[in-house]
Amino acid sequence: MAINAGTGAGSAVALALPLSVFLQMWRNFCYAVPGSWAGTKIQEALDARDLKRANILHLTVVPLSLGIPSALLVFISLYFGADGINAALNAIPQVVLDGFNVAAGVLSCVGLAMLIKIMSNNKILPYLFLGFIAVVYLGMDVIGVAVAGLCVALIAVFNMKFDEEEDF
Fold first, then answer.
1. Taking the model in full, what pTM does it have?
2. 27-47 confidence digits (pLDDT tens)
3. Which Pfam families does the annotation name (predicted)?
4. Rounded distance between C-alpha atoms, residue 141 and residue 146, angstroms
5. pLDDT value of residue 50
6. What's the whole-number average pLDDT of the chain?
7. Does 168 map to a domain?
């Protein structure tokens, strides 16, 4: 829209920022309410061995509750511009916005807990904590930590010693 209007990058950022915040709030709602309802219904269908119903729910509920409204929100926001989006965001009560801020803080803890649960192997768990420390306390970005992790993994693999097996 900013390119078509010829207004430049500042206009694009002014439009993209509120739109992205609004769409992220909508996505969180869609994954929380219709998504969790669909997950429950899909699990019930799978328990009843009704794969056709589970597939239909999987392919319709979340895409319809997320995709079509998101497309409409993008269209409406492009039609009304950044001022319309900012007006809609300002209409949201501060209590709700504070709740979203708290939820965003909790989500990082939940993500870390999920990683710890998945990587509960005592041999690789220290690497997770090293990455966490690098991001939080050393201020490294995720790409830098990933590259450093790749280097550590390559060093570990190259220094491994394997017992040679005899050919039969």
1. 0.41
2. 777 777 887 888 889 999 999
3. EII-Sor
4. 9
5. 93
6. 78
7. no
> Counting beta carbons within 10 angstroms of the beta carbon of residue 19, is it exposed (0 to 12), middle (13 to 18) or buried (19 or more)?
buried
Phi and psi at residue 94, in whole multiples of 5°? -60, -30
Do residues 125 and 69 both lie within one domain?
Answer: no
**End position of a domain, from candidates 92, 112, 130:** 92
| 3-state SS class at 93 | coil
Tell me which H or E stretch contains 40.
helix 34-47
Longest CA span, the chain: 76
Q: What angle do CA 140, 131, 149 make, to 5 degrees?
A: 95
Helix, strand, coil: what percent of the chain each, to 5? Answer: 80, 0, 20
- How many domains does the chain contain in total? 2
Burial pattern 117-151, b for ≥16 Cβ within 10 A else e, equals eeeeeeeeeeebeebeebeeeeebeeeebeeeeee
Alpha helices in 63-141 (DSSP H): 68-91, 94-118, 125-136
Domain's final residue, options 39, 74, 92: 92
As a residue count, the chain comes to 168
Q: What is the pLDDT of residues 98-156, one digit of tens each?
A: 776 676 667 667 777 777 777 677 777 788 788 888 888 888 888 898 899 899 889 98
